[in-house]
Amino acid sequence: MNRNSTQTKVVLFIICLGVLCPLLNAQDAKIDSLENRLLLNQPDTSRVKDLLALGFSYRIKNQDRADTLFTEALQLSKKINYPNGIAMAYQRRANLWYNKSEYDSCLYWGNIALDYALEQKLVWEEALIRSILASAYQSRFNYEEALAQNYRVREVFNKMAPPDYQAAINMNIGDIHFHRASYDTALIYYFESARIKDQVGLSHFAVVELNSIANVYQHQGDQELAMEYIWKALARIDSTQNAHEFASIMAVKCRTHLSLGQLDSALIAGRQAIQISESLKLKSRKMWACWPLGNTFYELDQRDSAIYYYNQGYAIAREIKDLSFQSIFSYQLGLISLEEGNLAAAKTLAEESYQKALDAQTVRERVWSTGLLAAVYDSLGQKPEAYDLYKEHILFRDSLAGSTKNIRLIELERKYRTQEQQAQLSQQQLTILKETQRRKWILFSSVAAVLFLIGLMLFIRTRLLQKRHEAEFALRLKETEALRLQELDTLKSTFFANISHEFRTPLTLIMSPAEQMIEGKIQGDSKNYLQIIYRNGKRLLQLVNQLLDLSKLESGKLSLNLQDGDVFRFVRSIAMAFESLGYRKNIQYNVSISKEPLAARFDPDVLEKILNNLLSNAFKFTPEDGTIFFKLEYRQSGNQLFFEVHNSGPGIGEDKIDQIFDRFFSERSNEIVGTGIGLALTKELVLLHEGTIGVSSIPESGSTFEVSIPFIPAENPESLSDFTLTLAPPIVNLPIQEESDTLITTELPIVLIVEDNSDLRMFIRDQLRPHFEVQLAENGQEGLRMAREIIPDLIITDLMMPEMDGNELTAALQTDERTSHIPVVMLTAKAEKEDRITGLRVGADAYLAKPFHAEELRATLDRLLRKNQILKEKYQQGKIFVASPVAVDSVDDTFINLILSTIEEHIDDELFGVRELAIRVNMSRSQLHRKLKALTEKSPNEIIREVRLNRAKELLEKQAGNASEVAFMVGFSSASYFSKCFKDQFGISPTEV
């Protein structure tokens, strides 16, 4: 079974490739040719013929386009008075409606065409029109009228039509007899059609006939003979252009395999028929295939699948008004309902099947429906009706049996086979004779043709492979380029975000103090601010110079200016310039350079920029108490100057080490945010010096950069230049001692400033004093810790910071009950709309873009304090501190509910106080005090007392006890103190309630 199934799948796959691919290619080529001709045609009879031919090609593929072409052909034919074109345009429109299964419209247009052809005495066109009318009448089950039309057509075709037309009319007549269950007569016309095609050398086109013959034998029960003709049809279909018939063959093949008990093969053939029919939108072919495929699933006891295909087929049959198949599918569904015991549904379906069989005038369906309906009536106890139907069933069954294969049919088949063999034998003899007479010529021409074909095939194959490779390469190139551009855009976005931060922060520290100096409102030490302005001006200058150098390198305008000098001495002076920086950052900085002079030619400016960037990068990423090692040596083996810079620190991840020198790449670690310029510039400068640069790194252990540049001996060793350094070590933000107000001793609002730039921290601090008590943190992690500890009234935070950025800090504050009420002001260089939305979504209350004005900052803080006061008033309105919880709208509401529920749980405990409440809500006493003060303007003691008194009032109103008893119930140990507090709270004594 498995082997047969596999072989069948292979055969079907080969057939599909052999049939459908050439079919579609040939059809497309023909359509393209006709479309091109229409562009050149004049409005004459040739254009009408091309319009009709192109519309006929589109009749299945694009029916709307076909209708448009037929309409244009009709209008043009009338315009130029071309009767043949008018008649054929009408006929083609009728044919189009027939393909849509709109038989009424087909008959309407067909009769218009017939009247016109009779009027104009167009005999040939009359025959073609009658042919399509016959098909429409047949689909309407008017077999008598269909036969009458076909016999008239046959008379004309036998006189003047080519053989393929004669074969076609015989097929049409045979189909009508088949539907009337006159199988012997049907076979006569099928064999005649096949004989005509074989006689004129069109045997490879006799696929329809062979499939129809197989269909007859299948219905007669001769499955082996049916399968023989199916394989004959499949063998010939590889060179035809008839996908309709391929689907039909698969449907017949499915039924035949089913009758032979070959269920796997039946499933394959049925699904193949469905697939082709759906892809080409062939409704009738799909309907034919649904029947045997449903029967196959029925035999496999897969009732759901069987019902699915029966219902699909029934829907199509109703859509195209095919009464015969409506009867068949109603019968199959009724049979399942009867077996499942659903007699009501079985009766409805059986009666429908019987009625459709009567309307269709088909014997086979009438036999099936009467048998089913008789069985249903018998199950329902309607014995008389069942008996009458059973007699009718026997009558038509015997009539159908009389149409089975008889001796006449056997002789007819034998005659056809004999004629076929004789024709083949005659053709073989003629071929042998011609080969004998022209052997040499045939041999020569055959060899030449074979060689030509082989060469042509090889050429075509080579061209196809070349085009395919070119297309694949172009696609890969396009995908790679798209990916590269996407990555570049991402890197550029990151670069510009970082460079914006690097520019805007110094600009803030330049513009804001300068504005205050101009206005005469400077707060703090003017000299100190002048130093800040100077430092940040130099910082901006360094950034601008790096960008200019990159631009020059990119445009090729930067070249080496080689000079003679002592390279060891020059590099030592660069390295030692960083010594004080290492001391201030508490970094162990070691330099290894020979003290002997080394005369060489080099560009001092380029070399200084290379080393300055490498050492600046090392100091930037080295934490306090870390180590940096710098070495320079001359290697005679390669005639190279070798530089090495090693630093401890976070290192570089394996996924980023290959990108570290890419332009726009920025390494953002938990420690440092970089711009993505320095190392890219360093690499370009090394390459300008015809050197190499590399990096190795171990995460959490540090990184090592190695640079090699060619050693060029000095031209005049006796006269070496003494170079002056033009660059300074990088500006770093060193801690400023005692920046914060060390003790919180005033009633001023507390502001926590979280900013990694010490100059900016100091500037903001000076702007807020003396109106605020200021606390400082240099990164997000420290800021979160301090916020939880001191519970400030306001927080000002930078967005881009090490360890934890501003968005992460804000999100952490908003989800913590201790800090959720604190307003947050976000300072950032990222002033785009998307960045603002991100900050506001995580909980920032205000967003200030750098550079900002000090007055703008103070106004923002005042506004947030007023907003906070409104929140306090909310919690002071009404009876908020009763024992019942408040409605939850925020984290702060949740916190208030926690306070109330905790006090309520211990309301009768006279020892329950602020300390116990703080422990229960997981806060210190100071944190609890500041939190409640910020929310309510009340201390924890006041809130506890107010909750106790509110509960006491409720108990007194409910007469739960006298004043002394209620006092003890709510945690007062002294009745007199309780009375005093009660009167202070409500203005009356407890006894007056």
Describe the model.
There is one protein chain. The chain has 993 residues and is of the alpha/beta class. Among the domains are: 41-141, Alpha Horseshoe (Serine Threonine Protein Phosphatase 5, Tetratricopeptide repeat); 162-240 and 409-425, Tetratricopeptide repeat domain (Serine Threonine Protein Phosphatase 5, Tetratricopeptide repeat), CATH 1.25.40.10; 559-710, Histidine kinase-like ATPase, C-terminal domain (Heat Shock Protein 90); 750-875, Rossmann fold (3-Layer(aba) Sandwich), CATH 3.40.50.2300; 891-992, Orthogonal Bundle (Arc Repressor Mutant, subunit A). It contains 37 helices and 12 strands. α7 runs antiparallel to α8 and α17 runs antiparallel to α18. 38% of the residues are buried.
Compact overview of the structure:
The chain is an alpha/beta fold. The chain is built from 37 helices and twelve strands.
Give the key terms.
Serine Threonine Protein Phosphatase 5, Tetratricopeptide repeat; alpha/beta; disordered N terminus; 993 residues
